[in-house]
């Protein structure tokens, strides 16, 4: 999915070329068929090739995946996830990212008081 989000619609050959590791075209084709049946990927025929593309925008997929991650690993708690990220960093979180987090929190507080 990451390759499709980054590169747009691709053939199996294109995806195979971009994949790390030594995966076969048949293996990639099988995986794409599974993703197509699950509705995660669309497939259109162009000439002799099928062209594969994500069926949803990356932001929507990321939002759903983040919700599942929070539920599975952090019992739905965003603050527990952030705390885990802060405690698990080998390097410090840079000032720019901290400022962005503070801004997001302030905006959320402001929107709660206006509702």
Give a description of the structure.
This protein has 115 residues and is mainly α. The chain folds into two domains: 2-54, Arc Repressor Mutant, subunit A, CATH 1.10.10.10; 58-114. It is 63% helix and 10% strand. The protein has six helices and two strands, in the order H-H-H-E-E-H-H-H. Strands 1-2 form a two-stranded antiparallel sheet. Strand 1 and strand 2 form a beta hairpin. Helix 2 crosses helix 3. The longest helix is centred in the last third of the chain and has 20 residues, at 95-114. The protein is elongated. The mean pLDDT is 91.
- Pick out the low-confidence regions: none
Measure the end-to-end span: 37 Å
Q: What global shape is seen?
A: elongated
β content, as a range?
A: 5-15%
Quaternary structure state of the chains depicted: single chain
Q: Which structural class best describes the helix and strand composition?
A: mainly alpha
- What is the residue-mean pLDDT, rounded to a whole number? 91
Helix proportion range:
55-70%
Number of domains: 2
Helices and strands, in order, run as HHHEEHHH
Strand order in the sheet with the most strands: 1-2
Rounded radius of gyration (Å): 19 Å
The beta-strand count equals 2
Biggest beta-sheet profile: 2 strands, antiparallel
Secondary structure tally, helices: 6
């Amino acid at each position: 999915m990451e390759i499709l989000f980054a590169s747009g619609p691709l053939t199996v050959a294109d995806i195979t070329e971009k994949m790390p590791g030594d995966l076969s075209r048949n293996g990639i084709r099988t995986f794409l068929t599974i993703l197509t049946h699950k509705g995660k990927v669309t497939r259109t025929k162009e000439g002799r090739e099928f062209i594969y593309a994500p069926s949803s925008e990356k932001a929507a997929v990321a939002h759903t995946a983040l919700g599942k991650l929070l539920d599975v690993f952090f019992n739905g708690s965003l603050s527990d996830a952030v705390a885990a990220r802060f405690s698990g960093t080998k390097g410090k979180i840079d000032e720019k990212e901290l400022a962005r987090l503070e801004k997001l929190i302030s905006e959320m507080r402001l929107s709660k008081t206006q509702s």
